[in-house]
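Q: what sequence does this backbone want?
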């Protein structure tokens, strides 16, 4: 899945918040924060935001407590999407020292990426404390729709992932979203693979398609033979149950899985 977690973070984790001058209501200050998010791109500004404008709880969950990882790159990277739409604050409810912010994204390819941010007033400055599950879920749905390479870009798998977004538990959503930034990439891969295992037909088709493109296409075989072998692989993968292990790299079944897949490929080619 190409940069699944990175794509997700680009639209999920706009981190640049700033306290504004006196005389404004809390709601106005929070609305100003959202406007500042859209303009923060320079490394110095990112580092300042990560140190001063996020709660320690946020930095710990999203970045494993690593300020350097937090300040590495812009989080509102416009290059991630052709037409990212406009993020606005739909409403603010303040119960000092906390605030619930309803975020809406209108227009463009990320239209409908809506949900809740929780902010905390720390010594008079509003800081981002948590991205709630509804926002992460909506952002994950957007990422599934837009990702253009890897497992989820395979259309049968994309449809299956899209059908499961609403039922994913909080732990899974948060592992996928924050796994790369917090250096818990294995957690992110494991969570994504678990979703894929819940889509057995799509998963078998994806593995067969990948084997055809990455293994058979490199052999001196006619295109018709490759297409035939791909079709033959589908029932073999279903019977053997090897597709889930084929997703996992460097696991305890690595060598055995590779050998078994090689046997399936040979059998499929011979059948053609």
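A:
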């Amino acid at each position: 899945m190409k940069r699944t977690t990175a794509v997700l973070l680009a639209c999920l984790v706009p981190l640049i918040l700033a306290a504004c001058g006196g005389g404004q209501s809390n709601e106005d200050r929070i609305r100003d924060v959202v406007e500042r998010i859209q303009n923060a791109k320079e490394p110095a500004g990112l580092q300042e935001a990560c140190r001063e404008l996020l709660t320690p709880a946020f930095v710990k969950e999203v970045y494993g407590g690593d300020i350097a990882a937090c300040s590495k790159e812009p989080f509102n990277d416009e290059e991630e999407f052709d037409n990212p739409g406009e993020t606005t604050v739909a409403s603010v409810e303040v119960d000092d020292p906390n605030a619930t912010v309803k975020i809406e994204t209108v227009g463009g390819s990320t239209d409908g990426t809506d949900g809740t941010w929780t902010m905390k007033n720390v010594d008079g400055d509003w800081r981002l404390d948590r991205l709630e599950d509804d926002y992460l879920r909506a952002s994950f749905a957007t990422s599934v729709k837009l990702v253009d390479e890897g497992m989820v870009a395979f259309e049968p798998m994309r449809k299956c992932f899209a059908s499961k977004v609403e039922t994913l538990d909080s732990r899974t959503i948060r592992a996928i979203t924050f796994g790369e930034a917090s250096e818990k990439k294995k957690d992110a891969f494991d969570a994504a693979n678990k979703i894929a295992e819940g889509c057995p037909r799509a998963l078998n088709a994806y593995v067969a398609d990948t084997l055809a493109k990455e293994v058979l296409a490199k052999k001196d075989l006619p295109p018709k033979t490759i297409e035939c072998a791909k079709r033959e692989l589908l029932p073999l993968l279903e019977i053997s149950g090897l597709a889930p292990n084929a997703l996992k790299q460097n696991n305890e079944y690595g060598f055995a899985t590779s050998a078994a897949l090689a046997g399936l490929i040979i059998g499929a080619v011979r059948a053609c």
